Structure to design on (295 residues):
């Protein structure tokens, strides 16, 4: 599926666009299976070590992790894409259906930014102490890069692995509030990087329930947030960022890679082992580096 001109116009007017049924289950399921297998492996280990009382093996994917974490949440920090680094997750970053949509806004020379996450948003209260970084306070994604990326367009792609609802912590945006650049943010203890109160736009807030297969596209200046998960299941999602190859990602200490190129197809990174290695090295060498610019 490619974006229509009407969809591109809508993105440019609103600063965001939800593309319904953009992906099939077959695009997303390999990632879910990869995560399910990892959680199964870790559950066996936790059970063998006496850290959980049962395996919860018959529970559905969106519930099993919550039940495990209720007893022991040591798996939780291992799940983000750069830590788990699965082959299916890496392949998904170059999913052709996804990139066809991205190309409509980024062009044919596409770099995958390392500002990317796979999020298991747990039911409120189950996350390790100190707040939940998956409950994102009002921010612009432009606010989580270094200043070197400020002049460049970066597209955020957000998608749920199962229905995202107001109850389990879907996203909210403030439409049409972009084009004025970066708003002042600050780093609020146990809340995260957020727009300062005085700079907060006053426009209408739009809540965005989404289904598996839907994709949310956001301009990096669109203020958005997500709410807590007050259900007893996990809100699984991915958020990825794409931009024109050659432009800075704003996280130079983490690995970006070429995801698609018409001009130089040989530059596309297709080797999982290289990606895996780049992340392993970068996570080691970037310890202590400040990812955000705010105090
Ligand atoms: O997934 C969430 O709850 C927050 C995501 C977010 O802020 C983003 O994808 O940019
Ligand atoms: Fe964000």
């Amino acid at each position: 599926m490619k974006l229509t001109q009407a969809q591109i116009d809508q993105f440019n007017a609103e600063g965001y666009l939800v593309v319904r049924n953009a992906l099939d289950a077959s695009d997303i399921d390999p990632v879910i299976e990869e995560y399910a297998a990892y959680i199964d492996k870790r559950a066996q280990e936790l059970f063998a070590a006496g850290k959980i009382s049962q395996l919860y093996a018959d529970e559905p994917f969106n519930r099993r992790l919550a039940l495990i974490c209720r007893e022991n949440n040591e798996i939780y920090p291992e799940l983000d894409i750069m830590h788990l680094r699965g082959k299916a997750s890496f392949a998904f970053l170059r999913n052709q259906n996804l990139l066809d949509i991205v190309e409509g806004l980024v062009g044919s020379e596409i770099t995958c930014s390392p500002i990317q996450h796979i999020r298991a948003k747990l039911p409120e209260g189950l996350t390790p102490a100190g707040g939940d970084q998956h409950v994102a306070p009002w921010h612009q994604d432009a606010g989580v890069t270094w200043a070197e990326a400020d002049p460049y367009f970066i597209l955020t792609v957000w998608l749920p692995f199962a229905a995202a609802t107001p109850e389990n912590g879907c996203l909210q945006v403030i439409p049409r509030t972009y084009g004025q650049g970066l708003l002042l943010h600050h780093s609020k203890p146990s809340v995260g990087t957020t727009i300062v109160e005085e700079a907060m736009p006053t426009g209408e807030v739009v809540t965005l329930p989404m289904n598996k297969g839907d994709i949310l596209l956001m301009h990096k200046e669109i203020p958005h947030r997500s709410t807590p998960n007050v259900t007893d299941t996990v809100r699984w999602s991915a958020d990825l960022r794409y931009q024109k190859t050659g432009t800075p990602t704003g996280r130079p200490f983490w690995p970006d890679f070429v995801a698609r190129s018409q001009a130089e197809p040989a530059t596309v990174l297709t080797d999982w082992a290289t990606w895996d290695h780049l992340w392993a090295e970068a996570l080691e060498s970037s310890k202590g580096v400040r990812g955000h610019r705010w105090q």
